[in-house]
């Protein structure tokens, strides 16, 4: 097992702007680091640099105690699971699993025992004689996992491994991967664009945007204490409500919100206010000092136990919008007016220009229910 | 009164109509002329039509390439023209084959025959019958560059001395150039020493002392005096002459139009053979006017023949059409008398000899050319080689004769006579028994059947009928001489197949002279298998290498791809001819390149191996682009992640190639290889055009051999059986291949 360290790593294709402009990231020994971000954010490139499938333009990439910039893939002792499984279609499951060991000229008896062990732990025991064409998507994915496992590498790399599976299988496979990581405790890097996957799997999550590292931390740290608007908006579904507010010195106001606030005197005239959807609740049930919001219901997404209510001020074409996560089983009609309230301590403030978080002296109420 | 008037008018109109329809009776004349010759002929016919009221001649120019076959196919079946113009050398074949040309001895008036010299009239006679009127003649003569040769030579020694003085092989200059390995040109030497290939009784006498001496003299000129260019052909000869690099050439009037304007040339009769004092006697081809035996207007046709051979017509054909007219009185015309070339060719006629019009003559051309090629290269002794050819041709002629003699005695065996009605009965019964299912299927799939119908008809007509006809033909002894007799009378059974497969004469000659019999089926099969296997393995291998190289993102990849696909865009016979030119031992770019590097030039077509190599290279050049495109397509369909996965797993390039590329290319490689095997097995063009089976047919593959048997030996049935054997071999291969592919399919 090994730690991985990026020191000012740059990746550039030709003369175009760098895909990864200068990454500093430390992945600890034995942890499962999830790289998450929207498409084109450089997360796959970063992963492929670890695998050795992409070269490092400048900077240093360390795997364990070895500088890996020039190390060919075969000498890195990493294993990779690909989005499209990359199973060899002409080989049986057994041969696919044994491929890496055969390349390394391991004795036949060892290959057999290792393959059978991996197959057993992934429930592939009955499928060893089949070819990939005869397997379902989930089975293929398990074979791909098994192929990475059998070699007992220092590092596992996962490149969006679940994106081709249906929702149910995805949950199941997520569980499998999490269990495997707990059992093997191998350093793993997992690339995904799905924040739910990131939150449920990662020991830590690194959020990338436009090649730049936005924030690294545990899932809860990122959720509760985002460094910037991007992270705040990326983590959580539905995302945090961000609205523009005018700073009146004594409070923050816009067409939707009117919040009395101390300690904002020295801040800019225009700020971004963030509020998680679950922090909005019916005005009737809220303490009297909580600020009220009166808005029109634009749309209601009923999820059963709860519902997502899309609100706007000034009709459908309103200036400000918000989403509220309210308890389910209520009769709300689009077009109707609704009065909600929110905990003033659950509010995040961001600089409107830099989108950076403005950390106030008071703690943000993350855990308190509405 | 009015009624009577109307009746008179009607009668008048009817009379006019009758006259008109009488006048529109027309004669059809076929010819193979183009350009000036065609214009001259058509003008004459216009004049003739204007002078006639009861008949009209319509001329049809038939493309020369298929003219002879068209005549042979149409005339015996009562179709085709009333009269036609063609060379005289087919008269014997047609005369023997049945109703193809009509004898005209009874209708030809003596005063008309007096227009022609006896030599030209003789060319029109076969077995005592006169079959046509001579129209024009063509023979070779000596054409010389007046800037180099002041006075044309009188004797052969003088000619060779002059030639030697003008030969500088290093600079590619030759004193004398002509297509001396073509029997038509060598005829001049053969006829100078003796009666030519046939003796006075029209029996084949190739191994006569005279013919042996003629070959020895040619070998002396080519190898001893070394005044002749190697591997000549008509294009090379005219090119050398036009570049001033050949002082003298032997050629015919057809070359005059190709001579460059800056060359001041003269034409003279061929010289005398110095040792005997007899003149070189070139063969003369006489074009005649012939009549179809089926023509319903034979008297009218004869009148047209008579008209076209009159002096005035001959003058027109000579002056406007550039012909040498058979009516020699035309040469008295001042314009012709002043034409030195025409006069020289006219004088050459005095010593020229008409090509024998015996059907056996058609068997002679190709094998005699092989002998000439071998002898001039010193690969064979004239006497031994001619004796061998004599024996071989005697056998071929006997086979032709046998086919004709057995006509009357033969018939299909009784079982076959019974089998055909039985088969028909079985088909009818089967249809009746299954009529419900057939009707049901028709009702349900009517649209589908209608869609398939045109293709089915096409297949029936273009594939199954010829196949069935070929199969039937292979059980007969059909040859040039009996092709028009009823099929039943030609029935032979399995003899052709026994002849092919039971031919174990793998060697000929004894002791030191013992050599492989290249005509043997098993030798040809061996060559075909070697040819196919080596071509397929090398082309697939090289194409794979190229495709792998071009699959990577190298600089100029698109350009390279385009370049490598280009050979495919050029018709393969053109490519084949270009390669043949490049392999020319003296003027070919390959030998010239070898010489630059100090390597001795190779006589590419002299040895079995080198000649095989020429075909191999050409075919590889032709087949690699296709293979490469197919393999490139296959490579592109292999997902990149597989290689990435393998790289991460630690596989090197070779391991990746072996365990990913090759197995995943199999679905593409297998069908491409199957196709390649079939195409190469039957790759007629390359073998026929590049090495032409040289030396002496050693490099013929089955398909070119079948062609030679059919169209050089005229043993059509034997060739059909040969083709059936080829078909059976490919069928077996296809069966085996299908099993292998199916096994692969299951394995996937």
UniProtKB/TrEMBL annotation, chain A:
InterPro entries: AAA+_ATPase, ABC_transporter-like_ATP-bd, ABC_transporter-like_CS, ABC_transpr_MalK-like, ABC_transpr_MalK/UgpC-like, Mo/tungstate-bd_C_term_dom, NA-bd_OB-fold, P-loop_NTPase. Gene3D superfamilies: 2.40.50.100, Nucleic acid-binding proteins, P-loop containing nucleotide triphosphate hydrolases. GO terms for molecular function: ATP binding. Residues 4-235 form the ABC transporter domain. Keywords: ATP-binding, Nucleotide-binding, Transport. Pfam families: ABC_tran (PF00005), TOBE_2 (PF08402). Transmembrane segments: none annotated. NCBIfam families: PRK11650.1. This is ABC transporter ATP-binding protein.
């Amino acid at each position: 097992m090994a730690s991985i360290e990026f020191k000012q790593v740059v990746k550039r294709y030709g003369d175009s702007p760098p895909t990864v402009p200068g990454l500093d990231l430390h992945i600890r020994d034995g942890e499962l680091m999830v790289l998450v971000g929207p498409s084109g954010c450089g997360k796959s490139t970063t992963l492929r640099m670890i695998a050795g499938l992409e070269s490092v333009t400048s900077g240093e990439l360390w795997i364990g105690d070895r500088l890996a910039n020039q190390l060919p893939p075969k000498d890195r002792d990493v294993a990779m699971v690909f989005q499209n499984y990359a199973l060899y279609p002409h080989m049986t499951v057994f041969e696919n699993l044994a491929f890496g060991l055969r390349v390394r000229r391991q004795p036949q008896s060892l290959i057999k025992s290792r393959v059978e062990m991996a197959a057993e732990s992934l429930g592939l025991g009955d499928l060893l004689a089949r070819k990939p064409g005869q397997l379902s998507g989930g089975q293929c994915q398990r074979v791909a996992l098994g192929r990475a496992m059998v070699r007992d590498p220092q590092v596992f790399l996962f490149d969006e491994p679940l994106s081709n599976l249906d929702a149910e299988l995805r949950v199941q496979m997520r569980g499998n991967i999490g269990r495997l990581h707990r059992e093997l405790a191998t350093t793993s890097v997992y690339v995904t664009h799905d924040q739910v996957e990131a939150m449920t799997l990662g020991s830590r999550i690194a959020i990338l945007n436009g090649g730049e590292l936005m924030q690294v931390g545990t899932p809860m740290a990122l959720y509760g204490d985002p460094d910037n608007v991007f992270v705040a908006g990326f983590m959580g579904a539905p995302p945090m409500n961000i609205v523009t507010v005018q700073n009146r010195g004594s409070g923050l106001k816009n067409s939707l919100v009117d919040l009395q606030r101390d300690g904002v005197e020295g801040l800019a005239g225009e700020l971004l206010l963030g509020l998680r959807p679950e922090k909005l609740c019916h005005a009737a049930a809220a303490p009297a000092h909580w600020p009220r919001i009166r808005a029109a219901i634009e749309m209601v997404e009923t999820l059963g136990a709860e519902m997502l209510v899309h609100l706007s001020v000034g009709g459908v074409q309103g200036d400000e919008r918000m989403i509220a996560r309210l308890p389910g089983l209520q009769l709300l009609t689009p077009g109707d007016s609704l009065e909600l309230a929110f905990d003033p301590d659950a509010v995040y403030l961001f600089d409107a220009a830099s989108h950076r978080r403005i950390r106030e002296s008071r703690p943000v109420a993350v855990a308190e229910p509405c | 009164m009015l009624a009577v008037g109307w009746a008179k008018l009607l009668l008048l109109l009817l009379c006019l109509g009758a006259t008109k329809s009488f006048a529109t009776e027309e004669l059809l004349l076929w010819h193979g002329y183009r350009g000036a010759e065609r214009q001259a002929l058509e003008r004459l016919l216009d004049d003739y039509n204007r002078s006639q009221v009861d008949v009209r001649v319509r001329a049809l120019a038939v493309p020369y390439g298929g003219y002879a076959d068209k005549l042979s196919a149409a005339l015996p079946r009562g179709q085709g023209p009333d009269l036609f113009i063609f060379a005289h050398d087919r008269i014997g074949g047609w005369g023997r084959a049945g109703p193809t040309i009509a004898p005209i001895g009874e209708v030809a008036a003596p005063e008309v025959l007096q227009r022609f010299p006896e030599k030209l009239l003789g060319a029109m006679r076969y077995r005592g019958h006169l079959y046509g009127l001579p129209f024009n003649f063509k023979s070779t003569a000596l054409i010389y560059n007046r800037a180099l040769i002041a006075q044309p030579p009188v004797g052969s020694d003088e000619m060779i001395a002059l030639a030697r003085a003008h030969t500088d092989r290093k600079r590619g200059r030759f004193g004398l150039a002509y297509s001396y390995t073509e029997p038509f040109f060598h005829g001049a030497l053969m006829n100078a020493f003796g009666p030519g290939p046939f003796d006075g009784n029209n029996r084949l006498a190739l191994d006569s002392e005279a013919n042996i001496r003629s070959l020895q003299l040619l070998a002396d000129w080519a190898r001893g005096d070394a005044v002749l260019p190697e591997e000549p052909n008509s294009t090379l000869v005219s090119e050398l002459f036009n570049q001033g690099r050949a002082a003298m050439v032997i050629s015919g009037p057809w070359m005059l139009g190709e001579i460059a304007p800056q060359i001041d040339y003269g034409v003279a009769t061929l010289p005398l053979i110095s040792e005997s004092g007899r003149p070189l006697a070139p063969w003369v081809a006489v074009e005649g006017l012939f009549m179809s035996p089926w023509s319903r207007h034979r008297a009218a046709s004869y009148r047209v023949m008579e008209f076209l051979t009159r002096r005035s017509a001959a003058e027109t054909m000579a002056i406007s059409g550039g012909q040498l007219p058979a009516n020699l009185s035309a040469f008295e015309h001042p314009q012709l008398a002043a034409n030195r070339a025409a006069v020289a060719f006219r004088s050459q006629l005095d010593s020229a000899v008409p090509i024998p019009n015996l059907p056996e003559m058609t068997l002679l051309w190709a094998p005699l050319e092989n002998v000439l090629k071998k002898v001039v290269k010193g690969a064979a002794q004239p006497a031994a080689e001619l004796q061998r050819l004599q024996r071989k041709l005697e056998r071929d002629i006997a086979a032709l004769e046998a086919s004709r003699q057995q006509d009357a005695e033969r018939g299909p065996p009784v079982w076959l006579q019974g089998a055909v009605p039985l088969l028909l009965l079985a088909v009818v019964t089967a249809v009746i028994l299954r009529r419900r299912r057939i009707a049901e299927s028709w009702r349900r799939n009517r649209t589908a059947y209608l869609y398939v119908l045109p293709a089915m008809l096409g297949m029936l007509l273009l594939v199954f009928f010829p196949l069935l006809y070929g199969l039937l033909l292979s059980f007969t002894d059909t040859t040039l001489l009996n092709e028009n007799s009823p099929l039943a009378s030609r029935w032979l059974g399995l003899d052709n197949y026994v002849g092919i497969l039971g031919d174990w004469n793998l060697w000929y000659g004894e002791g030191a002279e013992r050599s492989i019999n290249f005509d043997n089926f098993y030798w040809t099969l061996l060559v075909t298998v070697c040819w196919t296997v080596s071509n397929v393995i090398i082309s697939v291998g090289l194409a794979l290498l190229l495709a792998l190289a071009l699959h990577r993102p190298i600089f100029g990849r698109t350009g390279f791809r385009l370049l490598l696909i280009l050979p495919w865009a050029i018709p393969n016979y053109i490519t084949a001819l270009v390669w043949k030119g490049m392999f020319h031992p003296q003027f070919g770019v390959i030998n010239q390149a070898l010489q630059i590097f100090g390597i001795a030039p190779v006589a590419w077509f002299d040895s079995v191996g080198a000649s095989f190599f020429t075909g191999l290279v050409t075919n590889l050049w032709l087949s690699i682009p296709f293979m490469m495109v197919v393999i490139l397509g296959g490579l592109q369909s292999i997902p990149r992640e597989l290689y990435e996965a393998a790289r991460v797993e630690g596989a090197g390039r070779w391991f990746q190639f072996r365990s990913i590329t090759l197995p995943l290319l199999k679905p593409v490689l297998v069908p491409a290889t199957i196709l390649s095997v079939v195409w190469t097995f039957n790759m007629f063009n390359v073998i026929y055009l590049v090495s032409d089976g040289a030396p002496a047919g050693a490099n013929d593959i089955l398909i070119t051999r079948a062609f030679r048997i059919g169209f050089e030996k005229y043993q059509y049935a034997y060739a059909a059986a040969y083709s059936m054997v080829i078909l059976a071999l490919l069928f077996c291969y296809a069966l085996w291949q299908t099993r292998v592919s199916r096994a692969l399919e299951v394995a996937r």
